[in-house]
TrEMBL record:
This is Uncharacterized protein. It comes from Thalictrum thalictroides (Rue-anemone). It comes from the Eukaryota. One of its GO terms (cellular component) is nucleus. GO terms for biological process: mitochondrion organization. InterPro entries: CHCHD2/10-like.
């Protein structure tokens, strides 16, 4: 039978140590953790490469064909003048900065 004494005080809650630590302290604590995670990740990749084989990337180039004719009837001169003005500014800007 469980007997509860109503006169006994409630237990004191545990205090947290370092709850108001500095940012540098938390960075210093997380840096070794990140380094350990990164190192173990690299080791795991090496193990997988040893078991499965190295990763290879095969790039397949296709010959560029002529672009399909556009169905839009847009005058390209409208954009060409703005493009040329932008390029003029880009080419002359370094002269003003130096």
């Amino acid at each position: 039978m469980l007997v509860i004494d109503a006169a006994s005080p409630a237990p004191v809650p545990a205090t947290q140590n370092g709850g108001s630590g500095s940012m540098l302290g938390s960075f210093g604590a997380s840096t070794p953790d990140g380094l350990a995670w990164g190192a173990s990740n690299a080791v795991a990749h090496r193990v997988v490469d040893a078991v499965v084989g190295p990763r290879t990337i095969h790039v397949q180039h296709e010959e560029a064909s002529a672009p399909a004719p556009s169905s839009h009837a847009i005058d390209s001169d409208a954009c060409d003048s703005r493009n040329q003005a932008f390029l003029d500014v880009c080419y002359t800007l370094p002269c003003y900065l130096s």
